[in-house]
Amino acid sequence: MSVLMIDSHIDIPWEEKTEEGLPCWQKRDQADIALREAERRFTIPKAEAGGLGAACLAAYTPQAALDDAGHEAAWRRAGAMLEAMEEMVALHVSGRAALCRTARDVRQAAEAGKVALVPVMENGYPLADDPARIGHLARRYGVRYMTLTHNGHNLLADSAVVRQGPEEAHGGLSALGREVIGEMNRHGVLVDVSHASRKTMMQAVETSTVPVFASHSCVRALCDHPRNLDDGQLDALKVSGGLIQITAMGPFLRRGGGGTLKDFVGHVLYVARRIGIEHVGISSDFDGGGGIEGWQDASETHHLLKALEQTGLDASEIRALCGGNMLRLLEKAEEKTLECQT
Prior knowledge:
Protein name: Diguanylate cyclase
Largest sheet: 6 strands, parallel
GO molecular function, one term: metallodipeptidase activity
Mean pLDDT: 97
Shape: globular
Number of helices: 11
CATH class: Alpha Beta
Low-confidence stretches: none
Radius of gyration: 18 Å
Helix content: 40-55%
CATH topology: TIM Barrel
CATH architecture: Alpha-Beta Barrel
Order of helices and strands: EHEHEHEHEHEHEHEHHEHH
GO biological process, one term: proteolysis
Number of strands: 9
Structural class: alpha/beta
Strand content: 5-15%
Distance between the termini: 41 Å
């Protein structure tokens, strides 16, 4: 079966914080993206070996202090990581991969036999209190989605996982967060509710004029973890036209960890049966903690396809959840951008 497999969330290796506890902005050499034998779980040769046709590469920023120093470091880090993606492709894999800004770009890269790479952002923290930064990220780097939060509240919204401080800071979205979502809608940047608190997620569904999605989360009914979405949230995603991209993170698949490819497929099927095959997709969170028995790195992506084929899903359903649904959502965001320009 010919399927365009799209992994909606992969990190790039990077030092997390400086000695001062600020997000690290010093560039990390990305030459190993071209190697088959590399410590990182996603490389272009591994993707080629596993039949992974496209990946969303995340410029991830760890949450730090909500002050000028923290916000400045976060903004510098985001720019450095997005620039590193550009340099990585140009210097090391120019004939084998392509940076893509649109769904059409992804399809064209796949048709040309290249791995499509879509730049995205994990954590809205680098925006500080400036919604206009969304436009810059979209125009300059082609960023196509952004998680509102990571592990910890920021100025935009409350997070599902709080390492320190109060359980809530805003009761969901802040007024600034709602303004940022409006900018995201205008510039074709999808609203990603992975890492967001339940209130934040539900309010984002109501606020966004484009369907929202969760780029790397699982089903709370099957694994009671705060990073997962409960049935009410899944139902809200269906109403909005959005997606949940089931992720290969063991503790999200099975309480206590140890999740396997069988568990992963079980989460996919749960979503498909509850809200429809058009509302579910796949992600690995490789190089960000992801990797499970049966899908340890990008070279094993064909194991996932085989497991899905054994479920009884037909070819059109498999093509939808493996990539078609994600492309449709990108196109929805692109259509909204065109509306805003007229």
